Amino acid sequence: xxxxxxxxxxxxxxxxxxxxxxxxxxxxxxxxxxxxxxxxxxxxxxxxxxxxxxxxxxxxxxxxxxxxxxxxxxxxxxxxxxxxxxxxxxxxxx
Length: 94
Description:
By secondary structure, this protein is of the alpha+beta class. The protein has a single domain, classed as Phosphoribosylformylglycinamidine synthase subunit PurS (Mth169, Chain: A, 2-Layer Sandwich). 30% of the residues lie in helices and 27% in strands. The chain is built from two helices and three strands. It has helices spanning 17-28, 52-67, and strands at 2-10, 41-47, 73-81. It has a three-stranded antiparallel β-sheet, covered by helices on one side. The longest helix has 16 residues, at 52-67. The chain starts with a strand and ends in a 13-residue tail after the last strand. The model has no long low-confidence stretch (mean pLDDT 91).
């Protein structure tokens, strides 16, 4: 069992109206040093696969077909062994 950690962001140069709204809200809260905000998506997908390479191939196909829009978004993913059968382990992106 593997866990795919997927981060999807708009490609550089693509307008991000949601990010602009968050930036303006932060400015209204007196965080005037914030210059830009980009909003993305984070997904975790737990899947049964024989090995990490098989899991990666499956998740890359999922991203290309459904999870990410390849015209305006790019993604990065990490495949890790899933822990136990309960909830996915929380992770910190860095």
